[in-house]
Amino acid sequence: MGFFMKRGELLSQPFIYIFTLIVSAFVIYFGFTTVASFQRESNLVELSKFVSDLNNVVDTYYNLDIGSSKKISLMVPSQIEQACFVKIGSQINANVDEYFRAILKDNSQYNLFTLPLDALPAPAPDFAIEHLQIEGNENPLCIKTKGRLNAIIETKVANNNVYVEIRK
Q: Which segments within the chain are labelled E, that is strand?
């Protein structure tokens, strides 16, 4: 008798298999979306840490003696290809694409942009780093990053205003 099934049991087994497949599909789907969400959040945290670390270094050097300098190497999310530093209110004369040029023309408060502009989902790829400026003729100053921003910062003064300069 153990080998034989009743009629109702035979018909209910396919429904159990179908239900198991549907539940498995939902588990896999939500698993992938959760992992992707964690990845996005991880990249945003890494970007926030980069901006915070840069801000801290600039604040530190702003309070040091004129002429103090340091080579910095800060972690940047791997999706970021360049960090562009802008002289706000100055003519844009570097070789940048037209879309970025249009953004810079309307810019009145941000002096750091990460490229490509759409590398990471929200927040916007623009940041204001107080006391940070660039020197020279190139505006914006874009520094290529390969997971790290390598640059030199130096405390300077001009017109009785102390600032921190960044350069390649």
A: 69-75, 82-85, 112-115, 126-127, 132-133, 141-144, 148-158, 161-167
The candidate with the shortest Cα–Cα distance to 149, out of 127, 128, 167, is: 167
d(CA 86, CA 130): 12
For strands 148-158 and 161-167, give the pairing: antiparallel
What's the average model confidence in pLDDT over 29-43? 83
Residue in the block written with tokens 């992992």 = 35
Helix, strand and coil percent figures for the chain, each rounded to 5: 40, 25, 35
Q: With 0.85 as the threshold, say if the pTM is over it.
A: no
